[in-house]
């Protein structure tokens, strides 16, 4: 029997924009301090984006990403914001966009994945407030600055199509993002603006590690063993890397994806079997 190579492919993936493909473009990325958001920011900078406006509530980590983006030749503006602070989000984001002069790309990546019991109203409200209502607030603030033929990508989840125990809030928010994506795509189609959703599965990010640790602690299990079991459940026998999810975002914001809109595209190593 042949061995299966479960390593991450090396070299520049085919979906990644080539250097200079996004030259001079301005982008907003939320949840940019780590994980998928960080990788998206780096990808955009590598592809020639001129100005990145980066949002995250973790100010220290955000400054690190700003430095990394600057090292790649792009200008970056850090907005350390909690998406629940609607007035600050609107005021500071709009000021940054007025300074930038235009917006070409919006990537709504910020989100939380707190578990909740079915009757846990406080967690329910918090998760939807950040994941769904926060995405709406950022997008609404950006629309007047977004150029015709611009790009919007919303990061949902495979749990935007399925359910999971103790995750009613997260599942509802991610299902909602897919519906929001479809409706917004139709609203903006006359301007040539595309709106799509990316649905990550088991992505190797700090958020996933925290979720596994919390779940393991709750049931008295070993987090490392749970991670091994997760890998075995994926046909490719490995977690998807954050940069691979970012590559899909990179394709969707490129000129090559001009005819793709109102779609929800999964990147999960085959975990959902094409659901």
UniProtKB/TrEMBL annotation:
Positions of the UniProt region annotated as Disordered: 1-22
Domain Ketoreductase: from-to ranges: 25-205
InterPro entries: KR_dom (IPR057326), NAD(P)-bd_dom_sf (IPR036291), Sc_DH/Rdtase_CS (IPR020904), SDR (IPR050259), SDR_fam (IPR002347)
Superkingdom of the source species: Bacteria
SMART domains named among the record's database cross-references: PKS_KR (SM00822)
Gene3D superfamilies from the UniProt entry: NAD(P)-binding Rossmann-like Domain
Family that this chain belongs to: Belongs to the short-chain dehydrogenases/reductases (SDR) family.
Protein name: Oxidoreductase UcpA
Organism: Streptomyces albospinus
């Amino acid at each position: 029997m042949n061995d299966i190579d479960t390593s991450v492919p090396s070299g520049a993936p085919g979906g990644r924009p080539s250097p200079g493909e996004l030259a001079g473009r301005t982008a907003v990325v939320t949840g940019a301090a780590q994980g998928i958001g960080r990788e998206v920011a780096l990808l955009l900078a590598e592809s020639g984006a001129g100005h990145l406006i980066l949002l995250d509530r973790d100010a220290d980590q955000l400054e690190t990403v700003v430095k990394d983006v600057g090292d790649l030749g792009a200008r970056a503006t850090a907005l350390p914001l909690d998406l629940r602070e609607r007035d600050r989000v609107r005021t500071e984001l709009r000021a940054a966009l007025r300074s930038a002069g235009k917006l070409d790309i919006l990537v709504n990546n910020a989100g939380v994945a707190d578990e909740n019991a079915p009757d846990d109203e406080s967690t329910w409200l918090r998760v939807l407030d950040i994941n769904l209502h926060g995405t709406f607030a950022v997008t609404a603030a950006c629309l007047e600055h977004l150029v015709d033929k611009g790009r919007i990508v919303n990061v949902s989840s495979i749990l935007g199509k399925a359910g999971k125990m103790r995750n009613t809030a997260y599942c509802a928010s991610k299902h909602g993002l897919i519906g929001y994506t479809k409706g917004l795509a139709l609203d903006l189609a006359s301007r040539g603006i595309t709106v799509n959703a990316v649905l990550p599965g088991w992505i190797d990010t700090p958020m996933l590690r925290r979720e596994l640790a919390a779940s393991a602690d709750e049931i008295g299990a070993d987090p490392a063993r749970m991670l091994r079991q997760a890998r075995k459940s994926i046909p490719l026998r490995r977690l998807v890397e954050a940069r691979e999810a970012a590559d899909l975002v990179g394709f969707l914001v490129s000129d090559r994806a001009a005819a793709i809109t109102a779609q929800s595209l999964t990147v999960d190593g085959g975990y959902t079997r094409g659901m």
